[in-house]
DNA sequence: GCTCTGCATTGATTTATATCAAGGGGTCAT
DNA sequence: ATGACCCCTTGATATAAATCAATGCAGAGC
């Protein structure tokens, strides 16, 4: 399942065994999933420093590994799987603010407490750094800081799009936007079929809808011939064009 | 109106006259409105470089100075006034993604196009940099990059809170959250009275509601004795406590 | 094999908020 | 002054989506 062939550094693999815990932080993967400046910024000589600081962690589906409001001790980089980030109200209402896939950084917050929770959607692998060490790394690798700024800026753009979706789009527009987003983030296989790792409940909490509305909307799209809903979590986009015009409210 | 007494660097004022345009970029203000690392990072010797790069601009109320989708040529720092940032759908539906006050940076986006529009709510003063120059400045002042990362992280937290608001809160909870946010951002005068620079329409577009719902909700809060709605844009918070429990859905 | 549990779908009904509509009180230019 | 315009408020009605409710399906454990 972990696709090492997609690693652009495959020619000179860099698997490092962690003495302390016996796990292998795969910096190749950590850096390359999104081709980025951080990769070229990290020289062979620096790898030792990084390997000291990082611990590879495996999180099973459904396990919450960042609790909103807890002290922000660690900083993460996702290497495989999907994480849901969320905020909740005291009465249980929950808003998923984003899904983080391979390459995403978690725990950027400046505050000393996590501002959100994080839970594994499927099996998730991630590199964990203590924030203390992370601070040191940023001092030594200024280009890493630039990489983080880039990442944060991208997330900010995504957040603004999501605010437009949550504040002003109809249920149909929301679901169409979501399917297209997922398709554009490489979760699409050859036949245009999408494998959604998350449940209807997660989608609902991400789109500010209820499970029932998500389900009904998908059924409606299927009836319209826009999509094909397969067993489990597979969805085929039959008319990307119509979904796009729907997502932007052009009808 | 511009409150120079709040400038923490008042002891050694640094007003620089721009030869080219005859305007005065006030770096003191630009840096200090939020006490930040960038200030200590900028030495006297660097000021010349900054003054070369920045142009102070005054934007009248209602003027749109960033158009969504246009080439992202400039980078801004607000020195006074309030800016609304927004995204719109083709049919005119509009979502205000945030209000930017003194100290905020605009135009962080990595892309070569602006991902959002920006319009002055009241009279706005800002420092404008070309992105090209900004890039050079970031190379020379790494601490400025750290400051931007901090800023972006804070905005990300705010965006997550806003997603929770837009996706899961009721109209009453949204308006209560908004009033408390505004109060916490220093827009509060001695008597707990809040001066909102924006119209009901702006508030509605920020909270994902209609003008009518915002108006009705404020009337309801007044009837409940939570607030007092004065003439124009002044609002007094009579029971911050009740507003807080309302904002978090505890009732 | 069975039951239990979680997830998804679909239908009936309710409700919060949008939409439509009217009127009041500023401000500005004529 | 007068009218035009904008913003706000309030009321009546419509509607999209939530809620309540029932059913089906699939995997896990016994």
TrEMBL record, chains A, B:
Residues 169-241 form the HTH crp-type domain. One of its GO terms (cellular component) is cytosol. Residues 38-155 form the Cyclic nucleotide-binding domain. The keyword Cell membrane does not apply. It comes from Novacetimonas maltaceti. GO terms for molecular function: DNA binding; DNA-binding transcription factor activity. This is Nitrogen fixation regulation protein FixK. Keywords: DNA-binding, Transcription, Transcription regulation.
